[in-house]
């Protein structure tokens, strides 16, 4: 199994443009390959029992038009479900999430590979006027998704699943957070981000995910 820094390097990160119901959006996009068949990966991202083991416990009516909720607070509506290739949901967070309805969507696309493997693509589109981007840039969501995909990789490989909170507080997890923030800064620059804004966003993201020890 790859170590966590190899997992970080396995992901191709880009920042692009898209749309959500609220209007024009920016996107953070993560692409990587998993050594697992497409049906296995699909089941891992849609089965409540399996989601609980690598991401978070999930509840709700898990079919198109239904609503879901994750234990950590994210929730939304299942917009599209086309097994085993496409899943799209709205993505809201916090008690005031309804105020931002239509501002954030997550789409996962799976493509079978040539060797019983799977190409995985996650696209998180957020309304350009959402409040986090000016401060944190794409790392606001990107670092969190990097952390989640470690769990999915370990789960598909049959290994021990990292406890996200414990990992983030460990020396290895703190270094992972720093490297992930920098990687998203590089994606931001490649998309045409203004260097001073990118540098400030990377610093803010790093402080959020890797706070100074108290």
UniProtKB/TrEMBL annotation:
Residues 35-149 form the Activator of Hsp90 ATPase homologue 1/2-like C-terminal domain. Transmembrane segments: none annotated. It comes from the Bacteria. InterPro entries: ASHA1/2-like_C, START-like_dom_sf. Gene3D superfamilies: 3.30.530.20. CDD domains: SRPBCC_CalC_Aha1-like_6. Belongs to the AHA1 family. This is Activator of Hsp90 ATPase homologue 1/2-like C-terminal domain-containing protein. It comes from Streptomyces triticagri.
